[in-house]
Amino acid sequence: MVTFVDRVTLHLSAGKGGNGCVSVKREKFKPMAGPDGGNGGHGGDIVLVADPQVTTLLSYHHSPHRSGGNGGFGMGDHRSGAAGEAVELVVPVGTVVKDVSGETLVDMVEPGMRFIVAPGGIGGLGNASLANQKRKAPGFALLGTPGWEGDVLLELKTVADVALVGYPSAGKSSLIAAISAARPKIADYPFTTLHPNLGVVQAGDVRYTVADVPGLIEGASEGKGLGLEFLRHVERCTALVHVLDCATLEPGRDPLSDLEVILAELAAYPVPEGQLPLLDRPQIVALNKVDVPEARDLADLVRPELEARGYRVFEISTVSHEGLRQLTYALGDIVAAHRVAEAAKPVVDRVVIRPHGSEREFTIRVEGGTYGDIYRVLGAKPLRWVQQTDFQNEEAVGYLADRLDKLGVEDQLFKSGAQPGSTVVIGEGDGVIFDWQPSLGSIAELATAPRGTDPRVDVNPRRTTSERRERYYERMDAKSEARAELETERIAAKSRQNGQDDEEQV
């Protein structure tokens, strides 16, 4: 049963922030003594902690779903909600954290290193915190935001000074067992080692770690065998030891051909940017199993050719411990020299200065829709403000509109070509959809008037005295004309009536 896991996907859900409280302080003689709603508590973070006592990701393989605690709701009398419980996940030193796209988020190379992989939600403000000189008694509070949810990939890369590489059954496990206190599984069949083994070696005053990497075969860099799964454990090593089997009985194999295959696989494996290629690192050849007479003869035969290529060659036997002392001391010299060189490098503290407001806090993306363009507002602040808004409360919606206006969203919408009534979406996906109704202060450019004037502001609806007098005279003239017309109609009607009376008398 394999108990070593070096790659796992975590499904994380940080805690939600608690909602703020809407409350008014009431006393005996002060029934409306002011707002006293408390703030909601922040959601619990999920934190990764590098622990040197942990050597595998097995626990996360069995239970990959982890959640943080939710924050408590705010209460009256200025009582804030409790913060959600944070969750700490211990991982081995050397764990690389990546997102779902494969981008590296952090490399946990230092013991005790902490990284907030899933931040918790922000607690909403109560109406007491929202009160100011203009808004003395807010009738709303902010909602808590949801915590981060998503998947991250944990990938373990063993932190060791020396890596033992070679064909299966070349004797790597026996070598690490002979030079350290490690007790790996040892057997006479290929692929006995199913996971890397670490051992600590003391060579004089130098102490270093050695990693036994599972056997490589031809095509390992393309996914054959087990080599590709564990080649990542070689990335962090200072030196490589090629363990060559001089007593192999397989036809077509000899130490030189084995070395060529291993070198080809190491050259084909891409190391992360900024790291030294594997073949450019110090390399030592260990001709193993020289306790067998035929193996010693073969080692004496191939040693001159290996030395001619520039390799330091050691003939060793993990059974009789022949040559192990010289090998460990040679590796200790390489490791010590590397540590001195690393310590001599100057440490440059890069100070990044970002003036306030130098980065855009939101962007507007115009998307074509069936019934016209859609203007999508993207940014951390607008999205967070929308999440904090209770859309059942008109005052809260007005507060959101004020915040977006102060951020400059409406001005940017106008510059992007939005018109009153355009569809605006805040956030990715469905988001929050509404019809844009610009405010007066943000669409002064919409007014078609001479430069420096605004007919909506400059037009005075109040009439002047001359205008009122002229209007008065017009009304008086209209009344006089109406009276004259009525008088004329009255006289005409009376004349007709008199004429009819005269005819009747006759």
UniProtKB/TrEMBL annotation:
Residues 160-336 form the OBG-type G domain. Mg(2+) binds at S173, T193. Residues 2-159 form the Obg domain. GTP binds at residues 166-173, 191-195, 212-215, 288-291, 317-319. It is an enzyme of class 3 (hydrolase). This is GTPase Obg. Belongs to the TRAFAC class OBG-HflX-like GTPase superfamily. OBG GTPase family. An essential GTPase which binds GTP, GDP and possibly (p)ppGpp with moderate affinity, with high nucleotide exchange rates and a fairly low GTP hydrolysis rate. Plays a role in control of the cell cycle, stress response, ribosome biogenesis and in those bacteria that undergo differentiation, in morphogenesis control. Monomer. Its cofactor is Mg(2+). Its EC number is 3.6.5.-. It is found in: Cytoplasm. It comes from the Bacteria. Its main location: cytoplasm. The gene is obgE. Keywords: Cytoplasm, GTP-binding, Hydrolase, Magnesium, Metal-binding, Nucleotide-binding. Residues 449-506 are annotated as: Disordered. It comes from Microbacterium terregens. PROSITE patterns: G_OBG (PS51710), GTP1_OBG (PS00905), OBG (PS51883), OCT (PS51881). HAMAP family: GTPase_Obg. Residues 453-492 have a biased composition (Basic and acidic residues). Residues 354-438 form the OCT domain.
